[in-house]
């Protein structure tokens, strides 16, 4: 660490400071310390720039590079400044600090450092919610989902640069499903009508040996009203509650069973898509084989990756509310299906119980199938956190 002291305005022949009007020695000059040290090379992009002063206060700190200035925060007492965000790999930055001692005598200190070059880069491939895929008003079960174009081996380096801000305090955590996929969910469902901002400070974030992110991302979205559907596969009815009040009771017919693939999965599903028209084909069975089917169905809500939907089924209205006759989907009447698709947000929880076949956590968006303890096991930081307050910027 290099301490760069501001030079005194003048000094006596013996090096003593000049006396003040009272005959007492004047206050010592402010002494500034800058980290990284002057002319440092191969500095990590996510290493913070620290500026500290003794015997005075900082009045100005700037850290500038080819891509602009690094933001930072000054301590309340004015003695420390710390950068935020990450620097650009391969770039050289200049630090300028202006400090004054207790008598107001000021001076300027400058320093420079060079950031290590990247041998390869990684980028975000996809983020959900997305205005085109989910809309930017989503249900209380909706996770934040990020995928990358390369394997991330330094998960901590990435995860610590993913910031979540909310208009209401929310306790949650990030969870890695594999080296390219990290998702965030709260410990409990989001509070209704919460505004959320994801700030992914990934430009310069370390993703592995010699690999750094290329771009920052910001995503704003809103959690809508709380709508939770609960249904018993054995009792053949599901109740839709909005903000705690029952708004619809829907008879349904679920999977007929016999073989496991024809059981509707039990668990906490999320509405993954709303599709006015869906063509459904028998899984693993081709044309001409026993059990083959291809159906065009309307007003469908997808709830898993294994082909399960809540959808209009005029052919099974007589069974809805009393027996299970489907191949695994949740059959409801055309009127109920039209109401349901019109009143469902992507990310709304749909909780089904009573089946011997559980929903797997990786079957679609089965995030809520994992307990909070299980969820935290796949956080690279290993703990949950309370979101930051939502800023107006």
Strand order of the largest sheet: 1-2-4-8-7
- Which structural class matches the secondary elements? mainly beta
Helix content: under 10%
Distance between the ends = 34 Å
Radius of gyration: 29 Å
Which range does the strand content fall in? 35-45%
Main beta sheet, described? 5 strands, antiparallel
- Total E-strand runs: 32
- The total of helices stands at 3
Low-pLDDT segments, ≥5 res: 1-20
Shape: elongated
Mean residue pLDDT: 92
How would you characterize the overall build of this protein?
This protein is mainly beta. The longest helix is centred in the last third of the chain and has 9 residues, at 334-342. A hairpin with a 2-residue loop joins β19 and β20 (211-213). The strands form seven sheets. It has a five-stranded antiparallel β-sheet with strand order 1-2-4-8-7, with no helix packed on it. Mean pLDDT is 92; it is low at 1-20. Helix content is 5%, strand content 42%. The protein is elongated, with a radius of gyration of 29 Å. It is built from three helices and 32 strands.
Q: What's the topology here?
A:
Blueprint: E1 2-5, E2 31-35, E3 40-43, E4 50-54, E5 56-65, E6 68-69, E7 72-74, E8 80-83, E9 92-101, E10 106-115, E11 120-122, E12 124-128, E13 137-138, E14 144-148, H1 155-159, E15 162-166, E16 171-178, E17 181-186, E18 195-200, E19 206-208, E20 211-213, E21 217-223, E22 227-232, E23 237-242, E24 245-251, E25 267-270, E26 273-281, E27 294-302, E28 309-312, E29 330-332, H2 334-342, E30 349-353, H3 372-376, E31 385-386, E32 388-389
Parallel strand pairs: 3-10, 11-20, 13-21, 15-32, 22-30, 28-29
Antiparallel strand pairs: 1-2, 2-4, 4-8, 5-6, 5-9, 7-8, 9-10, 12-14, 14-17, 15-18, 16-17, 16-31, 18-21, 19-20, 22-23, 23-24, 25-30, 26-27, 27-28
